[in-house]
Amino acid sequence: MGFLDNLSNTIAETGQGIRDMADRSSAKSQLQGELRRKEKELEALVYQMGLQMVSNEPEVCQEKCPELYSQLINARETAKELRNQIALLEVEIICPGCGRTIKGAQQFCTYCGSILPEPNLNMNRDYTLTGLQMPNQAGAVCAKCGSPLRPGAAFCVNCGEPVAKNEGVENL
After folding, report:
1. Average model confidence (pLDDT) for the chain?
2. What is the largest CA-CA distance in the chain?
3. Cβ contact 161:142 at 8 Å
4. Model pTM?
């Protein structure tokens, strides 16, 4: 019966080896999960610490890390400009002349040419048109002021000039 005993021992040893590998793999996975949680916690703490330092001690940040501080200021300004541009594109104004809804901040209604009221944005942000360009798929420009014309516009949004039919833009 020596052969069967050897076979039984080999199977038992192999099974134990497989159990040991599974235990190590499980322990490794648990440790990796815990490590990921700790790294996220560290990242959140560093973020909070940096936020407090920039808010409470900006001069120290500027002195100790001038390049990073400059990048932070530039990124903050760029984000502010992008938020402003998005808000201007999302605003809707009801034209007092024709009652149509006009999307985007503009001075004149594209349908009837009426002067539009200033948009009420109800936010504490600086809204500017810096760098904002309206879509101009047809490539047409206003004959009076040279501003790009929106496809389908009957009037220039910049100066209120009626758009001539031969400017490549169909009237509504």
Report:
1. 80
2. 108
3. yes
4. 0.42
CA dist., res. 89 & res. 105, Å (int): 7
Neighbours of 93 (CB within 10 A): 18
Task: Give per-residue pLDDT as tens, 8-38.
Answer: 888 888 888 898 899 999 999 999 999 999 9
Distances (CA, A) of 38 to 32, 35, 113: 10, 5, 60
DSSP string covering 43-83, please?
HHHHHHHHHHHHHH-HHHHHHH-HHHHHHHHHHHHHHHHHH
CB 113 within 8 Å of CB 163: no
Cα 102 to Cα 96: distance, rounded to the nearest angstrom:
11
pLDDT tens by residue, 40-89: 999 999 999 988 898 899 999 999 999 999 999 999 999 998 988 888 77
Query: For the chain, give me the number of helices (H) and strands (E)?
Result: 3, 2
Tokens of 10: 């080999």
Residue 130 confidence (pLDDT): 34
Structure tokens at 68: 């990073």
The closest of 98, 90, 153, 97 to 120, measured between CA atoms, is 90
Q: How far is the C-alpha of 134 from the C-alpha of 156, rounded, in Å? A: 11
Number of Cβ within a 10 Å radius of residue 98: 13
